[in-house]
From TrEMBL:
Protein name as annotated: Pimeloyl-ACP methyl ester carboxylesterase
Domain AB hydrolase-1: residue ranges: 33-138
Annotated Gene Ontology cellular component terms: membrane
Species: Hoyosella altamirensis
GO MF, one example: catalytic activity
Top-level taxon of origin: Bacteria
Length: 294
C-alpha cells in the first residue's frame, strides 16, 4: 500500500517551502534515519515512485524554492547551491530527526554537497546521483560556455530554444570540443518544445538554477574529511553523458569508487513526467548502498 504523505510548509528567508512526510519521524539520533529525497529543479512529484519502495522507513520529499509548490518571496532571479543548502539545513532542523540519509539527484546532488560541507551534523549518508558539475570535467571551459549560452538564449528567446540546447547538451556522449559552440542550434520544435516566447523568465531550470548549479566548485578537502559517508553515483545508461562524467570526475577527486545505478539520469522515475526508468532495481541498489555504509 502506497502511503499518503502529510504535507507541511516551512517559512525560510525568501521562500515558503512545501515538504511531504511519509511515515512516522524517528527521534533525533535514532537508529532508523529519515530518508530525504532531493532534486533540483525537480520537485517532490518526481520521487513518488521511489518513495513507495521505502515503506519501512520515514521518507521526506520537498519542493525546492521556486519549484512546484514552494513559492519564492525574494523575486525571480538566479539561485545558488548556497541558498538551496541553507533551505535543506532549515528543513532538516525543522524535522528534528537528524542526521538524515539523503538521496539527491541532479541539481539536488549539488545542493546536498554544499549542505554537507556547511552543516556536517545534518547528514549521515549522502548518495549524490549525477551532480551536473561543469567545474570538475576535463572540458570544463566548454561546458561552462555552453551553460552560459543556454542561459543567454533563455533571456533572449524564451524557454523553447533554451531547453532544446539544454537537452542537446545533456544527451551528448563524450567530451565537448570547443567547436561544439559553433554547431547549428537544435530546433525547439524537434523536441516538441514551444517555439514562441511567452515572455516569462522564471523557469526553474534554465532561468533560476542552471549557472549556479553547473558552476559550483565543491570544497574537495571538506568533502573528503566529512564525517558522513558520501557516495557518488551515476546511471549505467548515462555513461559518457555530461552529468555522469561529472559524477565520475567527482568520485575520482574524492578518492572513492563511483556507484553505478540502473538505468539513466532519471532511472528512479516510474511514470512521473511521462518517463519510466527502472525504479524497482534503482530502489534496490539505493537500499544496498545505504545499508553498506553501516
Amino acid at each position: 500500500m502506497v502511503r499518503t504523505p502529510t504535507t507541511q510548509t516551512l517559512d525560510v528567508p525568501g521562500a515558503v517551502l512545501h515538504y511531504d512526510i511519509r511515515g512516522e519521524l524517528p527521534e533525533r539520533d535514532a537508529a532508523d534515519r529519515v530518508l530525504l529525497l532531493a532534486g533540483s529543479p525537480m520537485d517532490a512529484s518526481g520521487f513518488v515512485t521511489l518513495a513507495s519502495h521505502f515503506e519501512e522507513r520515514a521518507v521526506v520529499t520537498y519542493d525546492p524554492r521556486g519549484t512546484g509548490r514552494s513559492r519564492r518571496t525574494d523575486g525571480t532571479g538566479e539561485l545558488t547551491p548556497e541558498t538551496h543548502a541553507d533551505d535543506l539545513h532549515r528543513l532538516i532542523d525543522e524535522l528534528g530527526a537528524g542526521p538524515v540519509d539523503i538521496f539527491a539527484s541532479s541539481g539536488g546532488a549539488v545542493n546536498a554537497l554544499k549542505l554537507v560541507t556547511e552543516h556536517p551534523d545534518d547528514v549521515r549518508t549522502l548518495v549524490a546521483h549525477e551532480p551536473p558539475l561543469a567545474t570538475v570535467v576535463p572540458d570544463s571551459d566548454v561546458v561552462l560556455a555552453v551553460c552560459e549560452d543556454i542561459y543567454r538564449t533563455y533571456q533572449r528567446a524564451g524557454s523553447g530554444p533554451a531547453m532544446a540546447k539544454f537537452i542537446a547538451l545533456t544527451g551528448r556522449k563524450g567530451e565537448l570540443a570547443p567547436s561544439y559552440l559553433d554547431e547549428p542550434s537544435p530546433s525547439a520544435a524537434d523536441f516538441g518544445l514551444p517555439t514562441e516566447d511567452d515572455g516569462a523568465r522564471d523557469d526553474p531550470l534554465v532561468g533560476q538554477n542552471l549557472r549556479g548549479c553547473c558552476g559550483y566548485v565543491p570544497d574537495f578537502e571538506a568533502l573528503a574529511n566529512h564525517p558522513a559517508k558520501i557516495i557518488v553515483a551515476a546511471g549505467e545508461e548515462s555513461r559518457g553523458e555530461f552529468a555522469a562524467r561529472a559524477a565520475a570526475a567527482l568520485a575520482h577527486r574524492l578518492g572513492t569508487e563511483l556507484a553505478v545505478f540502473p538505468s539513466h539520469h532519471a532511472g528512479f522515475l516510474g511514470g512521473e513526467y511521462g518517463m519510466t526508468g527502472e525504479p524497482e532495481a534503482f530502489a534496490r541498489t539505493l537500499r544496498d548502498v545505504l545499508a553498506a555504509r553501516l
